[in-house]
Amino acid sequence: MSHETNTSIELEIALLIRRLTSITTSRKFGTLDRSAYLLLGQIESHGSAGVKALAEEFRLDISTVSRQTSALEQKGYVYKMPDPEDGRAYFYQLTEEGRRMLLETRAQRTERIDELLKGWTEDERTRFGELLAKFNRTYLDD
Amino acid sequence: MSHETNTSIELEIALLIRRLTSITTSRKFGTLDRSAYLLLGQIESHGSAGVKALAEEFRLDISTVSRQTSALEQKGYVYKMPDPEDGRAYFYQLTEEGRRMLLETRAQRTERIDELLKGWTEDERTRFGELLAKFNRTYLDD
DNA sequence: GCAAAGTAGTTGTATAATACACTTAAATGT
DNA sequence: ACATTTAAGTGTATTATACAACTACTTTGC
After folding, report:
1. Is the full-model pTM beyond 0.85?
2. Which region, left, alpha or beta, applies to residue B38 given φ > 0 means left and ψ of -120 to 50 means alpha?
3. Which residue has the higher pLDDT, A34 or A89?
4. Which of residues 51 to 70 on A have a Cβ less than 7 angstroms from any strand C atom?
5. Where are the domains of chain A?
6. A27 touches chain B (CB under 8 A)
7. Which of A22, A37, A128 minimises the CB distance to B9?
8. pLDDT tier at B141, thresholds 50, 70, 90
9. Which residues does the UniProt record annotate as the domain HTH marR-type (chains A, B) (predicted)?
């Protein structure tokens, strides 16, 4: 396999993360911050979950997710139900407000992508989406 | 243009930034941290530059870059030359050690990409590199 | 069936990356 | 020549994160 291709990908990835941080920090990129957006999206698509499952999904420390979910609960976007089978555990579920915020943010973020990619062909956008998805699901047991 | 495609790209980008943060934080991703790596790379490829130019390139606040370059200077990876035409300004240049670290980190990071993408076809990797480059250069005057 | 080990979650503390507001010194414009 | 602008640096705050210690519960091994 071509080493130059991978050197180029490596550089573009370093730039991408800088660029995405900059775009998403400017806070015009949706009402919810990134962690909140991902957590609510995960709960929406995979059903209610505890801190541990969420932390594993996003490869974050449990303590980090614990604080993030607390913040979401504080804001009324999720609520916490004790796990009937395990007295230590909880499930977080979306509130109506949480679902509303999720959809609103998703719409705002998609609109931003629309603007960014307006000069791209349909084929480029489709391919980009596919390759990003493939990359995100390419795991390495580290 | 397809809205679903963009919704999907939007989600994958949110996931990607989380995933990249996780990969690059584990610190097995090269000796230099991301900001140092990008700054040294920029100075290498575009020649010596001042804080302002670097901040613009990476869309960071000048204060942020000022601290980052100070840290690089501290570690002996760059040195600072006064701009002969402007008594307020400086140019940062790579030291030999800085260049060495840059190349070493680039090699380490590329190797990591090699591992991650080892199941991909040559065509997929080429296309991914191209689309990432295109995305990174797709600007929006925000 | 109980003690030891393990586990889910929380909280304390530390660090890194960032922005914004302010300061300083030099350059530029009128 | 004085006011305005600009390059860089510094003070301070915020956010996202990890690791370590702790609490309360569960599971396991004898």
Report:
1. yes
2. alpha
3. A89
4. 51-53, 62-63, 66-67, 69-70
5. 1-30, 32-136
6. no
7. A128
8. low
9. 6-137
How many Å from the N-terminal Cα to the C-terminal Cα in chain A? 22
Task: Collect all residues of chain A within an 8 Å Cβ-Cβ radius of residue B131.
Answer: 124, 127-128, 131
Kindly tell me the burial class for residue A132, based on how many C-beta atoms sit within 10 Å of its own C-beta (0-12, 13-18, 19 or more): buried
Nucleic chain C contacts, protein chain A, residues 92-131, CB cut-off 7 A: none
Q: How confident is the model at residue B142 (pLDDT cuts 50, 70, 90)?
A: very low
- State the DSSP code for A29: S
Contacts of B113 in chain A (CB under 8 A): 6-7, 9-10, 13
Taking the Cβ of residue B74 and every Cβ of chain A, the question of whether any pair is shorter than 8 Å is answered with no
CATH of A32-136, one of 1.10.10.10, 1.20.120.450, 1.20.120.80, 1.20.1250.20: 1.10.10.10
DSSP letters, A50-74, are -HHHHHHHHT--HHHHHHHHHHHHH
